[in-house]
Amino acid sequence: MRASELNDYLKLEAGGEHNLIKKVSSPLVSIIYGAIWLVATEPTDAKGKEKDWITLDHCQLIPNKANDGDSFHVRANDNEYLVRLYFVDAPETASVGPERLIEQAEYFGVSVPQVIEVGLNAKKFVESKLSEPFTVITRLAGGLGRSKIQRIYGFVRTKDGDLGEQLVANGLARIHGTTAAPPGGSTSAAELEKLAQLENEAKRRKVGGWSLTGQPSSVAATKLQSSPDGSHSIPVTQTSSSSSAAVSRVETGSLVKEKTQPNKIDINTATEKELTTVPGIGHVIAAHIIAARPFRSADDLRKVSGIGDKKYAQMRPYFQ
Hints:
This protein has eleven helices and eight strands. With about 325 residues, the chain is an alpha+beta fold. The chain has three domains: about 5-40, no CATH class; about 55-255, CATH 2.40.50.90; about 270-320, DNA polymerase, domain 1 (Orthogonal Bundle). The protein is elongated, with a radius of gyration of 24 Å. It starts with a helix and ends in a 5-residue tail after the last helix.
């Protein structure tokens, strides 16, 4: 049945165009609409099987201020995509909801300003790795987000290997997010295990975000800035399924966020740079905060010149 014939049939079934919405609950119409919705939203073919992997070669990174460590604009075959990496989540680089930044800071055991620095370095790392043509392997499954550009999940392959694995190996992303069985016959469980091994090694080497755990912000900033472009990054070696099976099981805890208290900012000791990482605080407000010290608690932010109720509600979750 052609699309035009289907449309005419649906109108007839519902008693005309104006009554279509009213009768959309009829069993036949609901079934047809449900089938159309599933086909449009799921990465499956007409037989219900998963779509085959599509390889986009010779891709180029498109500069965009919204790019970050795990999501970026890509040009492939004259088309633009917003690619979101499977399995990994790099820290945010801009002001977002405090809950997400605090969650990411908890994972690495650092403060919110420190985790933002990790996110900025992850962004620089990705820009460096994608400065040369790369490959995206995708099923064109839709990624989360509000962009009007087609947003897809994918695996990104560079000359140094899988980009998500490189981010984890260098302490620039956590193991978190949407998963999929990678192309080539592996499983999502095997990939999670490999990422956990890479993360444990990154912790042992104290690289990226793992170098900052327990460090004051001033020391952390110096460590992070030592290799922002990935020039001294840790390479990721490809592991065969047989060799992976020979490796002992890793600690289960490495796959799960540690239950630590959020490392929020101390209102009385935070530097101007740390303060300006908080949404709603610019250099002027930061100067007012510093001038108004000492505070009995961050609740006293309401008394600072330039901070109203709305701005206070926005910034308060970031402070102890």
